Amino acid sequence: MSTQAQRTCFAIATMLAVVAMTLTVRATACAQPASEMMAAHAVPSHTAAQGYVGFDRNDYPGDAALASLRKYFSFAGYWLTDPPGARSNGWTGKRALLLQQGFGFLVLANGKLDHQLKASRMPAAALGRADGAAAISAATREHFPPRTAIFLDQEEGGRLLPEQMAYVLAWTETVTTSGYRAGVYTSGQIVNEGAGQTITTVQDIREHIRAQHLHEVAMWVYQDACPPAPGCTLQPPPLSASGTPDADVWQYAQSPRRPEITGACAKTYAMDGNCYAGELKSLFLDVNVAASPDPSRGR
């Protein structure tokens, strides 16, 4: 066979091989289930090295949004009580629907602010025990199993005032002795106290627990300052980067963003300052990373 003929045969063989490969790829794509094709275009809800991504928001997102949210998130925040500033709770009765979609849980109960503690006729510790009992009752009604971690929403940061600490620790002890696991959602942001001293609310609570020989509590820390937070992204930072040792969950993005501490990652948020996921442009949310797809063990 001449050299020219050999080249012609080689070219034809190469073309046939390319056509065959193309047909194989197309056949594989056609055979792939639609759900798998959709998932391939979604951001993974976790990576082996960095952890699992979850969302939380005060308002229930609606039944129709759950399937889309599940494309991006492994777990969801779940309010047992009315969220801050709300007079109703849209999450009530939705646990079964979230389970059907495969979500894990971050179970949350609203806590009292300092001005509410001071205005109450009840001592702070007594109010903490009452609110803890209410959270236990709500968790039972929502069919969360024993040992589910319930996080107290402690919004005020820095070193806690005496009445705040009394309230928090009475709440956590009440929940712990009920058979559920107590946790606190609180600040992991460093506060300068002067004279070279700094504190985080997590550190403050842990020091009081050790000093009083109380039960340990789970910690869900919010630290959205950039850095260490990366901003509104669904590619999670390592949980260890939160700055809080042994944190169970790190909330690294909030909606709306706080301009004074998120300037370095402002471009990751939407123009309105909120954080959104994928095509869900009407649902602003907070974003978290955890070592487990079910941080509260609420399944």
List keywords for this structure.
8-stranded mixed β-barrel; two-stranded antiparallel sheet; 18% strand; 299 residues; 11 strands; globular
Describe the protein in words.
- The protein is of the alpha/beta class and 299 residues long.
- The protein has one domain (49-290): Glycosidases (TIM Barrel), CATH 3.20.20.
- Helices cover 33% and strands 18% of the residues.
- It is built from eight helices and eleven strands.
- The strands form two sheets. An eight-stranded mixed beta barrel has the order 2-3-4-5-6-9-10-11. A two-stranded antiparallel ribbon has the order 7-8.
- Helix 6 runs parallel beside helix 7.
- The longest helix is centred in the first third of the chain and has 29 residues, at 3-31.
- It starts with a helix and ends in a 9-residue tail after the last strand.
Question: Layout of SSEs?
Answer:
Layout: H1 3-31, H2 34-40, E1 46-47, E2 51-56, H3 66-70, E3 75-79, H4 95-100, E4 104-110, H5 114-119, H6 124-141, E5 149-153, H7 162-176, E6 181-187, E7 191-194, E8 197-199, H8 201-212, E9 218-222, E10 249-253, E11 286-290
Parallel strand pairs: 2-3, 3-4, 4-5, 5-6, 6-9, 9-10
Antiparallel strand pairs: 1-2, 2-11, 7-8, 10-11
Helix pairs in contact: 6-7
CATH topology: TIM Barrel
Q: What would the average pLDDT be, to the nearest integer?
A: 87
Taking the sheet with the most strands, its summary is:
8 strands, mixed, barrel
Shape: globular
Number of helix segments? 8
Q: Radius of gyration, Cα only, in angstroms?
A: 25 Å
Q: What's the β-strand tally? A: 11
End-to-end distance, in Å? 71 Å
The CATH architecture name reads Alpha-Beta Barrel
